[in-house]
Amino acid sequence: MASDLETLLDMGFEKPKAELAVKKTGGLQGALEWLEKNQDKSYEEITSESAKADDDPDAEPAPLQPGEEARSLLCNECGKKFRSQAQAEFHASKTQHVDFAESTEEIAPLTEEEKKAKLQDLRQQLAEKRAGASEQDKIDKKRNEVRTSQSARPVMSLLISCQEIRRKSTKETQDIKEDLKKKEQLKEAAAKRKEKQDDMEAKARIKAKIAADKEERRLRNEKEKAEREGRAPPVAAQTASLPAMPGAAESKPASAYTEARLRLQTSQGNLLKTFPVITTLFEVAAAVNQETGGEVRGFEQGFPKKVYGDVDFGATLKELGLVPSASLKVMYA
User: What is the reported pTM?
Assistant: First the structure.
């Protein structure tokens, strides 16, 4: 048969409290009552209160009457009876009652049914206490999760803001790079146009110089010949420099033109533009972009039928045969 201490341990009571309960009450029934009353206290609190109660002179039991035998202890303040002094001491520490006396009335022991009911009641109280502790643990865990989530929100907001800033900065950087690239292309095209213009002017000056030298030598030779023959210089030499008659028709080859007139059919209507013949098709597209706001990807000529794409953007209007004039349809991206 299991001892009272083993029975209490099987019921789930802590060993230090169970040993103290058996020691103070001397039996299973009293130990159960003592444990029930002290279930909300720790072992340290119980031992501390017991030490204080042992030093309290008011806790001493009242003397017996002559011829009587003490069978229980009575609390004169509330009328409750106790089987042992340990139970009375516990009652005093819990209620602060100090007026006790010995009683001749014997307290009947619990029956087996009462013991079982008492045990069942204690088990139920322990289960409820543990369930309450478990529920409280769940509540605390949920509260901690909420706090963690709330503390993480500012961090997530900061990360999202940083990503937006980086995305915006990347887009602005790309736009700046594209703008710089377009400016560099325009700058290179302008430099190329100026170089070609300077080259054309230099060639024209050389041709004019050669023609002037040739004419000067011809006139000098004719003059010397006329002097040797004793006649006047030829009249053609004087009339060659006379200005042309007003209204006379003058026809020039395409290579003699310095400007080209373009009729551009855009999404917003027709544009009439005049460009130097050394202007590249890329510069014409940039000018149309500024006028209409659309992105030009090429041009289409009606007659003769021809399409100018990206590969032709580096060529000049003169090289493409669009001098002295042309009509082009703008093709957008």
Answer: 0.32
